[in-house]
Queue: 2 jobs
Job 1
Amino acid sequence: MTDRSRPSARLMDGTAPARRLTEATAAAAADLRLRTGVTPCLATVLVGEDPASVTYVRMKRARCEQAGIRSRHVPLPAGTGTSRLVDVLGELSADPAVHGILLQHPAGPDVDERAAFEAIAPAKDVDGVTTHSFAAMSFGLPGFASCTPGGIMRLLDEYQVELAGRHAVVVGRSAILGKPAGMLLLGRDATVTYCHSRTADLPSILREADVLLAAVGRPELIRGEDLKPGAVVIDAGYNPGNVGDVHFASARERAALITPVPGGVGPMTIAVLLAQTVEAAERQLGLG
Amino acid sequence: MTDRSRPSARLMDGTAPARRLTEATAAAAADLRLRTGVTPCLATVLVGEDPASVTYVRMKRARCEQAGIRSRHVPLPAGTGTSRLVDVLGELSADPAVHGILLQHPAGPDVDERAAFEAIAPAKDVDGVTTHSFAAMSFGLPGFASCTPGGIMRLLDEYQVELAGRHAVVVGRSAILGKPAGMLLLGRDATVTYCHSRTADLPSILREADVLLAAVGRPELIRGEDLKPGAVVIDAGYNPGNVGDVHFASARERAALITPVPGGVGPMTIAVLLAQTVEAAERQLGLG
C-alpha cells in the first residue's frame, strides 16, 4: 500500500524533450539536404557481436533513419585489434561522405579503446569521446559533448533546474560519462564533487547534493534515505533489467525531481547523438 | 605572544624537494648532453613587459641555467596579436633545437590565450597548458602535467599524504591550476570537490576537506576556522606581497600540514618545468 502522505518527486521525462530535439534535428537534416543535396551520414563501428551492443547500435541506426540521417554500419569481427580499428576509424575520418563517427563501447578486450577513440577526427566526434571533445567540454570551447552528459544538461535545462552555486555530486568518473558531466556542471557554475568506488562515507556526501548524478553502473546503489530532501536526481546508470543506479521507489519519496529508468537519460543521449551528427555535417559543408 | 598550548601544523617545505628534483634534472641533462651532444632547450615567450611576468621569466631562465638547460628567450612587444603569437609558437614547435616551450601567462589583453596555447606542439608542452596535456592528466595518459598541479602532487607524495578515499577540496577552477589539479587528485582516488566564486557556503565545504588546495588568487580567503582539524593545506595562491590564499597564522593552528608562501608550491612548480623540459628533450631525441 502506498502511504499517500509521503511526497513524491516529479518525473523528469526524457522522451518528450528527446522527441522535440529529434524533430528539430530532422528539420535541420531536411534543410541541409535541400540546400546542398547531401544527406548527413553517421558511421557506426561495432566490434564483435555483444548482444547489448548490437541492440544499441540497431536502435541508434533506426533513430537516424527516422531523423533523415543516413547511417553506414561497419561491423568488425570480434578480436579485431587496435591497429586495424585505428585504420578503419582513420579512413572514416578522411571520407567526406561520412560526417559523424560512433565507435560502440566496449570495443573489446583486444583493443586500446583510448587509442581507437583518438583516431576519430574531432570534427566527426559526434559521440564526444576524444580528448579534444573532453577538453572542449572542460573549458567551454567549441566542440561536441559526450552524448549522455550533453543529454543530461539539456534535460536539466528542460526542467529549469538552477545550477549556479548549487552542489552537484557526480557518482562515477568514467571518461565519457562521469568526468565530462562534472566538467559541464562546473562550467555552469555548480560546485561539483566527484565520488567513486574509493569514496569514504558516500552517503554523507550524497546528503549534501542539490543535484545528484548517478553514473556508476551499480544497480540501486543509491537509496532514498541517502538523498537531501528536495534533491534533483539524474540516474544515468544502465544495468541489466532496466534498473538504474538509484533505488527509484525510495528516492522518489525524497527527491523533488527524478529521471525514470528507462525513459529519462537514455532517450536524450540518442537525441544528442543525432543533433550533433547534423551539426557536424553542417560545419563540414561550410554551413551552420 | 604565541599561545604555546595550541597545536601547530608541520610545514610542507617545497624548497628542499625542489632542490633534489632539480639536482636529478641537472644530472639527466648532463647525461643527455654526454650521450647526444645536445643541450636541452626551453623557449620562453613573453608578450609585453609586465613587471611580475618579467620577473617570473627571468627566474625560470636562471633556474634553467643552474640545471644545465639552455633557454631561448623570445620577447614580443605589448599588443602582439593572436595570429603573430600563434606563428611564433608554431615556429618554435617546428624547431628541432627547441625541446620545450613556455608561454608566460598572461599573454596580454589582445591575445586569445587558448588559441595561443594550442599552437604549442604537445610534445613540447612542458608547461602543461594545451588541451592535450589537460586530457592526459584527466585520463592518466602519457603527457606533461601543468607545472603547478604537477608540483603539488610531488609535494603531497614527498610528505606521504594519503589521497585514496580522502576528500580533496579544490578552491579555484582555472584551466592550468584548479581544473587539472582536481583531475590529478581524482586520478589518485581522492573524492574531489571543485569550489569557486559561485559556491554557496564555502566554509561548510572547506570543513569537510581532508586535503585543501587553495588556488583562487584571493588573499587570505581561507582562515583557520574554516578548516577541518588535521587537514593538509596546500596554498597555491600567489597574491601581491607574498600573501597566499590561506591566512597562514590561523590555518597553522588547525592544519596538520601546510605549505608556506613563499617556499611551498612555488619552488616545486619551477622544478617540474625543468624536469619536464629534460624529459621532452629525451623523448625528442629518442631516449627516455
Job 2
Amino acid sequence: MRDAYHEELDSIGESLVEMARLVGSAIGRATTAILDTDLKLAESVIAADEKIDDLQRDLEQRAIALLARQQPVATDLRIVVTSLRMSADLERSGDLAQHVAKLARLRFPEAAVPQDLHATILEMGQLAQRLMAKAAEVIITKDIDLALQLEQDDDAIDLLHRALFQHLMDDRWKHGIETAVDVTLLGRYYERFADHAVSVAKRVVYLVTGEHADEIVTAEPVEGA
Amino acid sequence: MRDAYHEELDSIGESLVEMARLVGSAIGRATTAILDTDLKLAESVIAADEKIDDLQRDLEQRAIALLARQQPVATDLRIVVTSLRMSADLERSGDLAQHVAKLARLRFPEAAVPQDLHATILEMGQLAQRLMAKAAEVIITKDIDLALQLEQDDDAIDLLHRALFQHLMDDRWKHGIETAVDVTLLGRYYERFADHAVSVAKRVVYLVTGEHADEIVTAEPVEGA
C-alpha cells in the first residue's frame, strides 16, 4: 500500500516538472511571437495553455484523492499540500505566458514591442524561461543551492523591469501611449512569471529544510502532528 | 473529537471572513489614499498588510494541522483544501491593495491619478471593495445566487478597465507617459483584485454544489474516496 502511495506521490512530482516544462516553453515561444510579430506562434501558445490547465486539474484531483485515501501526516502531508500550491503557481505562470501571446495577437500585424526595446524584452523573456527551467530542476533535484540561486536571477529580472520603466519615463520616448501601456503590462507579466518560478523553488526549500526561504512560503511544518 | 474538529473548521471559516474584511477595507483605504494624495493613509495600508499575511500563515498552519490530526475525507477534506486556496486568494488581494497604496506613496506629493480619471478609479475601487464584501458574505451564508452575482459585478469592473484603456489611448490624453504607466498598473491591480474576490466566491459554489462555477475552480470532488 505504501509503495503505491509513493508511486503516486512521485507521479505528482513528475506532473509538476511537466507543467514547469510546458510553462517555460510557453514563455519562450510567447516572447518569440511578440518580438517576431508571429501570429501563428502566438495562437499556438494561446491554445497550448489548455493543456497546462488540464494538467493542473488532473494533478489536483490526484493530490486530493491521495489525501483522502492515504491520509498522510508530517512530511508526506507537507509534500502533497505544497504540490497543490506549486501547481497553482505553474498554472498562473501559464496564464501570464498566454497574456504575452494575446498581446502579440491583439497588435498584429503591428509590433507590440518597439525595436529599441527588443533586446530588453528578449532578455526578460530568456531570464523568465531560464528561471522556470531552474525551478523544474529544483523540483527534480531538490538542490537547495540552486533554489536560492533563483532569487539572484529574479533580481536580474527586477533590474530589467526597472530599466524598462526608466526607458518609458524618458523624455525621449517616442512610441506613444498605446505602446507605453503595452510595454508596461508586458514588463508586469514577465515580473510576475518570474515571481511564480521563484515561489516554486522556495516551496521546495521549505519541503526539504522545513524552513521558509522567506515569507512567500507560509505553512509551518506539522511534524509529529 | 468530531465537535472539536468542527469547531476548528468553523474557526478557519471565521479567519477567512476576517481576512476578506481586512482586504476589502485595505482596497477602500488604498483608493482613498491615492485619490486624496494622503501619504499617512497610504502608509497605514502598507503597514496593515502584515496583519493579513499573519492571518494567512496562521490559517494555513491550522488547516494543515487539521488535515494531519483529523484526516478528513470527502466534503470535509474539500472544505479544508478549498480554505487553503481561498486564503491564498485573499492574501494576494491584500498585496494588490498594498500595491495601490505604494503607488500613492511613490508619487507623493504628486497625485498618481489625474483629475479626469478620479471618477473611474473611484468606481473601480468601490466595486472592488463591494466585491470583496460580497465574497465575505458568500463565505458566511453560502448563498449561491449571491456568489453568481459577483460575476456580474466583475463584468462591471472589466468595462471600467476597458474604458480606462480607451481613455489612455485617446489622442487627447495629456498627462504624459508616467501617468499612463501608473494608470495602466492601477487598472490591472483593481482587475486582479476583483478576479480574486470572484475566485473566492466560486470556490464556495464548488464546495456547496460540487460543481465548478467555471474553470477557475479546478479540483474535483472526492466523494466516497
